[in-house]
Amino acid sequence: MPKMFQSISPLDDTVLFDGPESTPANISQAITTARQSAILWHNTPLSQRIQIARNYAKHLSDHRDEIRELITSEVGKLPWDADAEVGAAIGKIDLTVNALEQRRSKTVIESGNLARIVRYHPLGVALVLGPFNFPLHLPGGQIVPALLSGNTIVFKPSDQATAVGKWMIDAWRQAGLPDGVMQMIQGGVEVAVNAIDSPLINAVFLTGSRAAGRAIHRQLAGRPDVLLALELGGNNPVVVSDSIPSKAVADLVTFSAFVSAGQRCSCARRALFIENSDCETHIDAVVQQTRSLVVGLPGDETVPQVGPLISTLAATQLRKTYDTLLAHGCRVVVPWQVNPRRENLVHPAIVDATKCTDTQLAAIGDLEWFGPLLVIQRVADFDSAVSAAANTSYGLAASLLGGTSNMFETFVNSVGAGVVNWNRPTTGAAGSLPFGGLGDSGNHRPAGYHAIDFCSDPVASLQSPTETESFATLAPWDVVK
């Protein structure tokens, strides 16, 4: 008998998906079907692939309320946050069409009787492993460019967001995507492991934790033919300088740290305050705003600003991180608190690492957590702030608040992150830009606008118009390589 699993709402424990976990036979069949459909899909005219993608965007627009409510129900996002995710998923279509045209379209350079041509061929079958926190947009951010590039897809949504995953698969089919082009498998880690082992997989795209990324990297050891694109987590710093109002600091730091209940990989985990005449005022403003944030559930009479974590287990794991931070020498500023209504309704917490030792600070920089928990630290000057911000094995996002343009240029070049903002939240990312991290936050395969780059292989050709073209007429650097 296949193993059964459920996706349970973090709002009220309603079962939103109840079904069997994909068996090895199911997984093999899904991958085989995707492989058999690869040539047909690759040979489908690009204009037709684009039209299907635009049909999908229209389906999202036409059913925006339905999918927004499902996202809220299954992963606990507040309605505005879920709606923004749907908007991003819709916008991803035109952005990807533009990216394909600008970055991966056929290029021809002619010189006399010689043409130099670059074509882009699809990888084949791409396995997409989706996260729970953006269950529609983030897997779509890999699926859309992969499909437009001519790949077929095997999609495993998070086992905590399988209902949204199934909805998305159905939406693509209603948009006209041929049945064999995108297959869904479902379940937990064992399902992903089984699929990765398939010799028919040509690429693996993961959005997830550092631990998951490392495990897949190890599993694919010795298989350089499989392209691996990792979008992983971060221990993201925000540095607060001078020349910025305290209200703006409070807004930007708390939004960076606590939006989506801290369940974004780009959320700020550390806030570093440069000691100056504004430092304590800035810290007080952040602390007071954190204490005033309304924590609750969608539909509450008082509209909440911070919603629930994905599960009670997630809350338990976050509490362990909080206790670990205290064990590393942090001092409590805003204490751990759970709303009595639900165990996964966690209030934002702040701890102070100012008096921690260098060893303790290094350990804090190596932690990864997912929830409304912020570490603050006072630092002597800007150079110390940049050094402290870069004191992590991760390198996803970072922000500088205040300061000068010269300071920001230094920050961009020294902080070691893939998304670096000025006077904006760490969570600020534009769909027209790359999105990816350095260090333990990725593997040099940025997503966002640049996701199109890892969805195809460039093929170079030198072409002469006739077979009798004299070799002597060709410049030797064109042929002798």
UniProtKB/TrEMBL annotation:
Its EC number is 1.2.1.88. PANTHER family: DELTA-1-PYRROLINE-5-CARBOXYLATE DEHYDROGENASE 1, ISOFORM A-RELATED, DELTA-1-PYRROLINE-5-CARBOXYLATE DEHYDROGENASE 2, ISOFORM A-RELATED. This is L-glutamate gamma-semialdehyde dehydrogenase. Keywords: NAD, Oxidoreductase. The keyword NAD applies. Gene3D superfamilies: Aldehyde Dehydrogenase, Chain A, domain 1 (3.40.605.10), Aldehyde Dehydrogenase, Chain A, domain 2 (3.40.309.10). InterPro entries: Ald_DH/histidinol_DH, Ald_DH_C, Ald_DH_CS_CYS, Ald_DH_CS_GLU, Ald_DH_N, Aldehyde_DH_dom, Proline_metab_enzyme. Pathway: Amino-acid degradation; L-proline degradation into L-glutamate; L-glutamate from L-proline: step 2/2. The active site is at 231. Coiled coil: none annotated.
